[in-house]
């Protein structure tokens, strides 16, 4: 919860709220889910599993730093690109898919269970949107251009 609060405050205090509003929504949903889990003491294993999602941030951050620094070695970026893809799947998509399956199959959809299930489904949509941006940016850059020749996603953190 502290990480999400810190990152949200960083976005706000660095005046990135307008261009990063979806990250603030994502963080708000994550904060509310984790606070709910902590207060009730239920589904704590799910909370730990959800934290695995953040492991892939290491490679997303390396990717961003390599892009920002214009590293002269494209081989380093290329290697990270593929590692990032594997880590995104292993630590972001797979745990999220498992938890969604688990909640839809085994958790009573009342009260906190319903709240967490809706939260998971919304986060799934966001994670898939981020994944599609990552794929377009790193693996299909020609798909990034709109009909007017401008980037269809605007100035997004994940693809810049």
UniProtKB/TrEMBL annotation:
Q: Mention one GO biological process in which this protein takes part, according to its record.
A: membrane assembly
Q: Which GO terms describe its cellular component?
A: plasma membrane
Q: Where is the signal peptide?
A: none
Q: Which SMART domains match?
A: TLC (SM00724)
What keywords is this UniProt entry annotated with?
Membrane, Transmembrane, Transmembrane helix
Q: Where is this protein localized, as stated in its record? A: Membrane
Q: Taking every annotated instance into account, which residue ranges of this chain make up the domain TLC?
A: 1-143
Q: Where are the transmembrane segments?
A: 29-62, 82-104, 116-135
Name the domain of life this protein comes from. Answer: Eukaryota
Membrane topology, as annotated, equals:
Multi-pass membrane protein
**What is the protein's name according to its record?**
TLCD1 protein
Q: What's the main place this protein lives?
A: membrane
């Amino acid at each position: 919860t502290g990480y999400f609060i810190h990152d949200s405050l960083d976005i706000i205090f660095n005046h990135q709220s307008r261009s990063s509003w979806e990250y603030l929504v994502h963080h708000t949903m994550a904060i509310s889910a984790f606070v709910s889990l902590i207060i009730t003491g239920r589904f704590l294993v799910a909370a730990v599993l959800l934290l695995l999602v953040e492991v892939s941030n290491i490679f997303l951050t390396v990717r961003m730093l390599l892009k920002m620094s214009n590293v002269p070695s494209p081989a380093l970026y290329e290697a990270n690109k593929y590692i990032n893809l594997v880590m995104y799947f292993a630590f972001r998509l797979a745990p999220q898919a498992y938890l969604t399956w688990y909640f839809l199959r085994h958790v009573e959809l009342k009260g906190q269970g319903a709240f967490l299930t809706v939260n998971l489904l919304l986060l799934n949509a966001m994670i898939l949107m981020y994944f599609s941006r990552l794929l377009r940016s790193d693996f299909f850059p020609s798909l990034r251009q709109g009909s007017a020749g401008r980037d269809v996603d605007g100035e997004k953190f994940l693809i810049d």
